[in-house]
Amino acid sequence: MTQEKKISVKKPAYLQNDILADEIREMMKSKNKLFFNIMGSIGAGKTFLLERIAEKLSPYFRIFVINGDIATTIDADRIAKKGVDTVQINTGGGCHLNAKLIKNELDKINVDDYDIFFTENVGNLICPAAWDVGAQKNIVVVSITEGEYVIKKHPIIFKGAQIAVINKCDLDGLGFDSQVLVEDAKKIKSNMDVLCTSAKQITGIDELIASLGIKIQ
Predict the structure, then answer these.
(1) Could you tell me if residue 18 is inside a domain?
(2) Taking the model in full, what pTM does it have?
(3) Residue 17: helix, strand or coil by DSSP?
(4) Average pLDDT of every residue of the chain
(5) Per the structure, how many domains does the chain have?
(6) Most exposed: 2, 77, 177, 189, by fewest CB within 10 Å?
(7) Quick one: pLDDT at residue 42?
(8) How many Cβ atoms are within 10 Å of 179's Cβ, its own excluded?
(9) Domain, as residue range, for 84
(10) CATH number for 205
(11) Among 168, 178, 177, which residue's Cα sits nearest to residue 199?
């Protein structure tokens, strides 16, 4: 009699990803490089924040940005105009980046040519939470326009983050106070840095860069 056995492929896939992510992290550490993974919903302001960060840092550091999206090179093209090198990964429907995709792009360049690496993950607050890309710090960006319950509804991605950014704070007070989001983030992870920014008004950018551990000489 033939017996059927169900095998979950999810756990081995995660395990292989985590092993490769650790290898990326160790490689970056050994070369004294910084690598940050930025996550958030479509429209939260991830690309705009990266543009502001690039404006501040590109005169002093060599920066490489890996942009993830289902289609187009819109985000990579925008950031490239700020004096940094970029590459666009189009997932064709995939809702997240993973360590293998990142490693593939790193293998195409000389990592020693750069000081700081950023990944702008595919825009959503669900899938990227489960996939380690090998970054030293994960940053989650939400915006005032996503409503006062956005953090409460997506606790998992914040548990794996070191920095939470409440963006579009120039719109603070439109229905609720941004402090609500700050408090929600702290309830999920008390030791997480929580910052309020406005990419449009260029506020909070210096504080974000400091939270990344980057010092401009």
Answers:
(1) no
(2) 0.93
(3) helix
(4) 94
(5) 1
(6) 2
(7) 96
(8) 11
(9) 34-211
(10) 3.40.50.300
(11) 168
